[in-house]
Amino acid sequence: MKNSKQKTSKMQHKAPSLKATDPQVLELWVRAGGRCEFHGCPEYLLQDKLTAMRAKLADIAHIVARSKDGPRGDDPMPLADRNKIENLFLSCLKHHRMIDNKALVKKYPKELLLQYKQTHEERIRYVTNLGDEHETTVVRFIGKIRGNSVSISNEEIREAVLKSSNRYPRYLGGEQHIEIDLTTLPEKNMQEYWEAGIERINDVVERRLAPAIQNGEIRHLSLFAFARIPFLAHLGHAVGDKVPLDIYQKHRTGSEGWAWSTSQPGQQFTYKKERNGQDPSLVAVILSVSGQILIDQLPSEISDGFSIYALSPDGSKPDRGLMSSKDSLDQFRRTYASLLRDIEANHPSAEAVYLFPALPISAALIIGRELMRNVSPSLVVYDIGRGGFERAIEINAINNKK
After folding, report:
1. What is the DSSP letter of 39?
2. What per-residue confidence (pLDDT) applies to 263?
3. By the 8 A CB rule, do 108 and 191 touch?
4. Count H helices, E strands: the chain?
5. C-alpha closest to that of 377 among 349, 358, 357
6. Domain 269-395 - what CATH class?
7. I need a labelling partner for 353 at 20 to 30 A (CA). Which of 188, 262, 271, 299 fits?
8. What is the pTM of this model?
9. Which helix (H) or strand (E) element contains residue 377?
10. DSSP conformation class of 45
């Protein structure tokens, strides 16, 4: 009789346990989209990441514990309300243990976890309400810059795409994931290095992107890139303008994420002719956006015969943080396209433009994409090395007009 009373007394201080088939548990799975609700955790809880096997890997956590003695259990919330959907939190095993750890529980108060839950569930509802016209295909392009490379996580991509373009991404993982990885290219012989990189870019574009664009499977692209400028220029040209394209870059200011700033004003750009050359067929262009390039830094092959044009920020000094908004990138694109059209009009005999860039990653993709096939001269892109500028690649945008 005594044991029965003790058991009843304990039950009065603890909400009943939940079953997987309880309606509020099923609703929680739907609200959370099958993902951990802990802020910044992208874990998909219906498939094992390592083996790709299907499995339920979630915990149904309580924000205010079922028991008065549990984590945040001293909250005045009635026991009868503790199993309601508003108090339930879909979590991966790791973060369930973290938020309930006695040593960490004060770092995760009720108010913070409720905010995590609300933010996550609102985003899931918003994204799943978007139609097919908001879909974008994601391409990750990763190389090394001065020996360094970056990783671009699925969560960073989702956040940037949704925040910057009101779209949702496709091809995030699995066999359909589109990635161009240049991090393993050997750099002992630079000519072979550039050729191998171009071959790898062309392979992915021709084998995966072009056919999907042609048959209408891909209607919009989101490009996340970190690589050397000549490769970026070639990729921009190879992708072309057959489908709309949003370009993203890793930002060095603010949150240092991949989303474009919506608060920064657009940067204007301008260009001018720095030198009249003796031969109208010889043209060089300096792009001083992330850093300043002077004429005397150009290699010796840029002789007095070359006319030299220079594009730079209007009213600002070149700086790596200038390209922080979509508007700035669009202003650069417009100015650069205008410069190319002027060169085509004023130097009709030029078969190539020799390009010396100091550019943010996003702008580097633009310089190849804005070339007009069968109209623009070829683009000879230089790369800055330890000994100065070195010729890297040539992007042929024209079948010889002559």
Report:
1. T
2. 80
3. no
4. 10, 13
5. 349
6. alpha beta
7. 188
8. 0.72
9. none
10. T
